[in-house]
Amino acid sequence: MTDVLLSAASLRQAVASRRNTVSEAEWNDWRWQVRKSLRTLKDLESWVNLTEDEREAVAKAGGRLKIAIPPYFAELMDPEDPACPIRRQAIPTMDELKLSSCEVDDPLGEDGDMVAPGLVHRYPDRVLFLVTDVCPMYCRYCTRARLVGAKGQLEVDEREQAYDYLRKNKKVRDVLISGGDPLMLTDEKLEDIIANLRAIPHIEIIRLGTRFPSVLPQRVTPQLVAMLKKHHPIWMNIHFSHPKEVTPEAMAATSLLVEAGIPLGSQTVLLKGINDTPAVMRSLMHKLVMARVRPYYIYQCDLIKGAEHFRTAVSTGVRIMEALRGHTSGYAVPTYVIDAPGGGGKVPIAPEYVLDKDREGVIFRNYENKVFRYPDAGRRRGTRDSGARWAGAGELNQAEASRYFSARNGVGKEVKSHG
Fold this sequence. Notes:
Blueprint: H1 8-20, H2 24-27, H3 30-35, H4 41-45, H5 52-61, H6 71-74, H7 85-90, E1 114-116, E2 119-120, E3 126-130, H8 156-168, E4 174-178, H9 187-198, E5 205-210, H10 212-215, H11 222-229, E6 234-239, H12 248-259, E7 264-270, H13 278-290, E8 294-300, H14 314-324, E9 335-340, E10 345-348, E11 354-358, E12 361-365, E13 371-374, E14 394-395, H15 398-407
Parallel strand pairs: 3-4, 4-5, 5-6, 6-7, 7-8, 8-9
Antiparallel strand pairs: 1-2, 2-3, 9-10, 11-12, 12-13, 13-14
């Protein structure tokens, strides 16, 4: 235990001094970054002034989920602020040891759908292939905390069992390679897996799920990208949680991938105190689009043990979607989903826009809470007027709009109408 906390100035000086002793070649070598990752209490104390809560949690966290923070990601942490959104994702607190009655080890029921070592088959035409349980950085809210950091990568004979299952199941057209993080494998081992999958004729799409572009973008090298490019169509699902992660280095990595023809989609977990405001989430989505990454999903935090302090109310996610839809570019609006507990799959959760249906059509509101009627196909329509517009279609007046909002117990905060 450290008796005296370093001053902010001395700590920053120590970090800067250590950084200056590292060559550019070392700093930009992802293997060096992995080797030098912060894993122990001593490592962490040399980078940040830990709180007593953090220090105690580090001492006890090993039994739940390992700690690993690459120096690159550690540099993004505020050494003085325990509420720093980067720091909270990487350094444990004692809240991890507080378990809720609804939390379980395998909240998505993946183990029950495992048909071969590492191979999860839940949806009809796609599978999840967990090829390693090792990550460059262990997120404190990890859905697979029960698995990561325990064993390593699948053995050759285990992978063969998975390939054999896929050869026999011709409905499978899409394989998501994940873990852990598959980019922890060497280029050669990763290519061997991809090549074996690509040799199966009915597999059309191969996806990679990784957090490397946000936590250690140095992993995205010209050599890796050249290898992936040989096996198109390759897609990549990447994980960003906060705008601070979209650094010049991260943007350089996404640029390499995009220019190699690899479409990128981002998955973001909704996290209390980290990205649970419309302003932070909007900033993240805008930065991702600038990095040529399509926001794909916002996930409600899963019911994993020890993550209750990260979970928000579902209404928080709905409010964020309200603040995005219509208020920014459609390309910057992901889908908010809950991965149904026990293996029910991803279910989209959205604000209510449809208010009612009547004989004239569908009544709905827009992002400004203006209310409109659309003449739905198959429903009785009025006659065309001289303005070539269906009678009853268009924006409703104030009195009509208020009636529908009242029926929905005030969906939307304010009725706006120019009718």
